[in-house]
Design brief:
This protein has two domains: about 45 residues, Orthogonal Bundle (Helicase, Ruva Protein, domain 3), CATH 1.10.8; about 80 residues, no CATH class. The model has no long low-confidence stretch (mean pLDDT about 90). It has seven helices and two strands, in the order αααααββαα. Helix 2 packs across helix 3. The protein is mostly helical. The chain is globular.
């Protein structure tokens, strides 16, 4: 797998180490053609949505407006050093979230992955992987 990545110049991402690649191998029972297909699709998805640069390139303008209607966030770590994420689902005001996320346009689908709200989720997960997990690991 690593030889294929290097020979085809697929990625130079330091996050794509042995353990990361092993997940793809296990998911496809170490059948190399299936592993390559799955990894290629993964890399194409990341490129399509700009996930490698989303932390620097994207700013969620509606964050302050959305937060009262969709209260969520990270708030420290547990005893084992894992980040604690709280989503106060009982306080979600779905109609307001929909209005803010779609800009009030009833024809826009909430599932559209290009909505800024979804991009904020993608960005949040990239921050979790690249910064929050790393800082939690460094403290323990």
């Amino acid at each position: 797998m690593k030889e294929w990545i290097q020979s085809n110049d697929i990625t130079h991402n330091p996050w794509h180490g042995d353990y990361f690649l092993l997940k793809f191998c296990r998911a496809r029972k170490f059948e190399l053609p299936k592993v390559i297909e799955m990894f290629t699709n993964y890399m194409q998805y990341r490129k399509e949505f700009g996930l490698d640069t989303i932390i620097q390139d994207f700013t969620f303008e509606q964050r302050a407006e959305l937060q009262p209607h969709y209260p969520r966030g990270y708030c420290g770590v547990d005893k084992m050093g894992r980040p604690i994420y709280i989503e106060r689902s009982g306080y979600i005001k779905e109609s307001e979230v929909r209005r803010i996320a779609t800009g009030g346009d009833a024809t826009v689908e909430m599932g559209d992955p290009n909505l800024p709200m979804w991009k904020e989720f993608y960005q949040s997960y990239e921050l979790l992987q690249k910064h929050i997990f790393m800082s939690c690991s460094a403290t323990f």
